[in-house]
Amino acid sequence: MKKEYLFTPGPTPIPTEALLSMARPIDYHRSPESANVIKEVAENLKHVFQTQNDVLILTSSGTGAMEGAVANLLSPSDKVLVIRSGKFGERWGEICVAYGVEFVSIDIEPGLSVEPQAVADILKSNPDIKAVFSTLCETSTGALHDIEALGQITRDTPTLLVVDAVSALGADDLQMDNWHVDVVVSCSQKGLMTPPGLGFASLSERAWEAVEKSTLPKYYFDFQKARSELAKGSTPYTPAITFIIALQQSLRLICDEGIRNVLSRHARLAEATRAAVKALGLQLFAAHPANTLTSIRFPGGLDSKAFVNNMRKQHGITYAGGQEELSGKIIRIAHLGWMNEYDVMVAISALEMGLAEAGYNVKLGAGVTAAEQIFTTLG
Amino acid sequence: MKKEYLFTPGPTPIPTEALLSMARPIDYHRSPESANVIKEVAENLKHVFQTQNDVLILTSSGTGAMEGAVANLLSPSDKVLVIRSGKFGERWGEICVAYGVEFVSIDIEPGLSVEPQAVADILKSNPDIKAVFSTLCETSTGALHDIEALGQITRDTPTLLVVDAVSALGADDLQMDNWHVDVVVSCSQKGLMTPPGLGFASLSERAWEAVEKSTLPKYYFDFQKARSELAKGSTPYTPAITFIIALQQSLRLICDEGIRNVLSRHARLAEATRAAVKALGLQLFAAHPANTLTSIRFPGGLDSKAFVNNMRKQHGITYAGGQEELSGKIIRIAHLGWMNEYDVMVAISALEMGLAEAGYNVKLGAGVTAAEQIFTTLG
Asked: Do B29 and A218 touch (CB under 8 A)?
């Protein structure tokens, strides 16, 4: 009787209502009923994005929405700034290369976050930079970037601020309108508690002005077509209506709780997790950790990859390991989406027992005790 | 107690096993178990595509796979031939325009199919044409193109044959390898009996050679990356693993029946539907109708759009109407995917009673009788 627990930063556990909605017989995506679902989802997404702008619904992973942002905003001769502090910041650069967009980059050691002043300096000496591409939470390291500060820098310049909130939307605060963010892209399988397969993009008015001038090729990810269809509760091409129906269920849960409360819940879960990690004598990997997931530098001598594989196989606990050059060196525990205090307790107690089993000198109970102290103090 | 019946050419009804598989708690898409699912699905797709080539799995609608074919095969200066006989043939041309690819077109009256000799003539006078873009079944009209004949024309030339089998895969025969088709694209929500959200592309060896030379921009739809990840049971970006798991179930049903038997079943269902339409005194819209769906020219004085809306609202029967310039003029009845003789009986008897209700002078029972005669003769 092995039970399965999922602590990866996407996909995240899906609420029962959303799971069951996908087992209903499928309906035609162009029916009036489907149009109403699309309209409700689009409206509730605005609440999560904290924006009055339209939120476009794409059938793709978050990467498709990222590519859409590049292809819809830019033209071949444009120059941009890419903030790279891990795999997902690097992805912005790779997309620029694929489209022949010139870019300068700020390259940050994995685990660290960008210094806003560095962005301000580069924009000052490169006034021709059309857009700054950043992540909110660099999922590969668990580091949070200060998007509010970046918005303060770009808001009074012609430079657009484009943010990959693929993993962190609904977990770390991102006030699109208040913070003057021009483009936010995200996806379904993280804070939105829906399977992977939907990408989202929201654009400010000045971002839409850039779209009108863009000449890079696009068809499937054409944002203008997506926007005009969305107004009718439709999409340019057949959408993953099954996931939109599941998302309708998950978004109702988020909207009932309220996005500010959802963010506070994630902050508490993250704080308790970090306290537990420290109480176990382990080190956080990120200097400015996100509330989306906690990355832990793995104690010397232990291979995090083998640990992650073993925890899944033996105990039904799925954490994420490190990616690429961080493989074997960190583990990542998400507290993201359909998660509460008891999920954190499972994640931490499994970590304690797993480390003990792996021969690491861990004080059993220290982590869960620290987490409980946070929950009872703040609760 | 209104029951719902879906006769649209996508999405199509989903087998219960596939529906229920989506209600299971989600798993990590990078687990060994998920890799095994992806490998099984990729292998079974080859059976449906009737090919030894890899079948790439993309998270997108079929249009994304179409765009991928253009972006991966071609370069900006290339010239291609596009066969246009309706909305979906036109889509190939629109994608070429978006990417700055030059094209000549064969434009065919809606309802008709391409004359292979016309293609041969154009290729003879335009030896620089890199690829011919066709549909198998033009879903907007129900017309079938003779892909086998086109393959005979292109196989001994340097020109690639690219086929949109988005709606017809698994319903109308398409022997990718035997017929020398270079690229086949399709999607999940038609003959594959899975929700919309997965696109597929399969490429011949000489198509892969063209991919190596292509310089059009691509990232999310990069076929080379998709191919190298597929070998590991993986994908370049997070896949819609929920749909891949559902597809695993649907593909097992197809492989158990065998693709040749699946195609024969569709041929029977289509023949019975056409016989019923004729027995009711109605006209088929397509001169060479596909086995995927049957398009019916709507009798004078009746608006097919109002009829379709009313049948859904009053009787729970969802047909498809005509698209764009065919709106109001035709109805389309799919016999596609998880369908048998009794589904055809429902579709036809609802049509008979609906027409009578709409004031059309229909001989009640004539259509279902003709269909039964086909089923008992051929059964």
From this structure: no
Mutation target to probe the A interface, by most A beta carbons within 10 A, among B19, B237, B249, B250 is B237
Interface test with B, best of A17, A24, A61 (most B CBs within 10 A): A61
Per-residue model confidence as pLDDT tens digits over B262-299: 999 999 999 999 999 999 999 999 999 999 999 999 98
**What is the total residue count of chain A?**
379
Domain count within chain A: 2
Q: What is the DSSP letter of B25?
A: P
Q: Give one word for A197, left, alpha or beta, with left for phi > 0 and alpha for psi -120 to 50.
A: left
For residue B20, which residues of chain A lie inside 8 Å, CB to CB? 23
User: Are B196 and A23 a contacting pair at CB < 8 A?
Assistant: no
Q: Which domain, by its residues, includes B55?
A: 16-257
Q: Using the beta-carbon criterion (under 8 Å), do B318 and A220 form an inter-chain contact?
A: no
Indicate whether B229 and B296 sit together in one domain: no
Query: Above 60 in pLDDT, residue B378?
Result: no
CATH assignment of the domain containing B368: 3.90.1150.10
- Condensed to tens digits (0 to 9), the pLDDT of residues B9-61 reads 999 999 999 999 999 999 999 999 999 999 999 999 999 999 999 999 999 99
Token pair belonging to B165 = 């089998």
Do A100 and B6 lie within an 8 Å CB cutoff?
no
**pTM assigned to the model:** 0.97
Radius of gyration of chain A, Cα coordinates, nearest whole angstrom: 21
The verdict on B155 and B206 lying in the same domain is yes
The answer to whether residues A59 and B196 touch, using CB atoms and an 8 Å cutoff, is: yes
Are residues A371 and A353 part of one domain? yes
Interchain proximity A98–B218, CB inside 8 Å: yes
